[in-house]
């Protein structure tokens, strides 16, 4: 089974598909240099933001299941889809991908964003970035395998800002946030901790530094 791994300013979005790597400033993390810093997003706004990026990713993947691409946003109010393909193929799918992305954000928190579809430039990738990506990829693929039996399991978002700011967010289809929802979320969290401390991930250093978040269908933290 192929895996799609999208790094967006250190944010890893994992689903079924292919691999691509980004490292662009994200609106949720960075303001444009020399401009007034935007008002920070609330936790709920941030969760909805991630949810929308996931939605765009999934919609593109529904049609182009082996396409290597990344989806990100920035403080210029742009939603960027960067595609790792040769120029001829890229030109053949560019307009369709743009249309898919626009339709996906039409009723979302990113509805006013300009959609930009471009070929991916990997010349900026450093050895450190590659090593971080290998760690995130290993964690994400191991978690996907370990959580596959949960019917409510959706996507995995892994955020790596620095050595001390790392998180794993599990997107689910859990309905509501009552006691039953919380109980299921805690069960998933316990399973995540077990997987993180399994022999498959014993090569990952500081594994306990990852914060675990379980989101329900509406993007609310329920663990």
Keywords:
disordered N terminus, 26% strand, 223 residues, single chain, alpha/beta
Summarize the structure in words.
With 223 residues, this protein is of the alpha/beta class. The chain contains four helices and nine strands, in the order E-E-E-H-E-E-H-E-H-E-E-H-E. Strands 3-1-2-7-8-9 form a six-stranded mixed β-sheet, sandwiched between helices. Strands 4-5-6 form a three-stranded mixed β-sheet, with helices on one face. Helix 1 crosses helix 2 (87-105) and helix 3 crosses helix 4.
Q: What is the strand arrangement across the widest sheet?
A: 3-1-2-7-8-9
Q: pLDDT under 50 segments (min length 5)? A: 1-38
What Rg do the Cα atoms give? 17 Å
Please tally the β strands and state the result. 9
| Structural class by helix and strand composition | alpha/beta
| Beginning-to-end CA distance, first to last residue | 29 Å
The biggest beta sheet reads:
6 strands, mixed
Q: Into which percent range does the helicity of residues fall? A: 25-40%
Strand content: 25-35%
Q: What overall form do the CA principal axes indicate? A: globular
Order of helices and strands: EEEHEEHEHEEHE
User: What does the average pLDDT come to?
Assistant: 77
| Count of separate DSSP helical elements | 4
């Amino acid at each position: 089974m192929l895996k799609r791994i999208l790094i967006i300013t250190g944010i890893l979005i994992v689903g079924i598909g292919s691999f691509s790597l980004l490292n662009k400033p994200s609106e949720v993390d960075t303001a444009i240099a020399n401009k007034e810093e935007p008002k920070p997003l609330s936790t709920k706004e941030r969760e909805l933001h991630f949810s929308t990026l996931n939605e765009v990713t999934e919609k593109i993947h529904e049609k182009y299941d082996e396409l290597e691409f990344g989806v990100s946003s920035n403080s210029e109010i742009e939603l960027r889809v960067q595609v790792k393909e040769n120029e001829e193929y890229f030109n053949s799918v560019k307009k369709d991908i743009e249309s898919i992305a626009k339709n996906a954000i039409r009723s979302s928190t990113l509805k006013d964003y300009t959609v930009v579809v471009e070929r991916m430039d990997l010349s900026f990738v450093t050895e450190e970035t590659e090593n971080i990506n290998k760690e995130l990829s290993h964690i994400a693929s191991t978690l996907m395998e370990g959580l596959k039996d949960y019917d409510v399991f959706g996507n995995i978002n892994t955020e790596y800002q620095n050595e001390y700011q790392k998180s794993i967010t599990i997107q689910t289809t859990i309905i509501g946030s009552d006691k039953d929802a919380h109980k299921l979320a805690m069960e998933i969290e316990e399973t995540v901790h077990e997987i993180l401390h399994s022999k498959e991930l014993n090569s990952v250093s500081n594994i306990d530094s990852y914060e675990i978040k379980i989101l329900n269908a509406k993007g609310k933290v329920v663990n």
